[in-house]
Amino acid sequence: MNKYLLPACAIALALSATARAEQPAGQAAPSLGKEASRATPGQPPQMSEIPTMKQQGERMAVLMEQLSKESDPEVRRKIMAEAMCPQ
Q1: pTM of the complete model
Q2: Does the pLDDT of residue 62 top 80, yes or no?
Q3: Between the CA atoms of 19, 20, 25 and 29, what dihedral angle is there, to the nearest 10 degrees?
């Protein structure tokens, strides 16, 4: 297996170098960090900034709060069903 590792790595490196060389000069490589979380005009907004997704997140938070307080298995099952498949 080790004799295939070096050629596989070399091919992967060559492919990534080719893909990097084909990027337009004005387009920077994606970075990780706080700068990547900001939406620029060419990129879609973060999911947390979309109103529908924000409402769903708040709804899930309420359901999880109810779930943590409930001890009846039948009610917990209903809450989990609502959380997994919203009606």
Answers
A1: 0.45
A2: yes
A3: 120
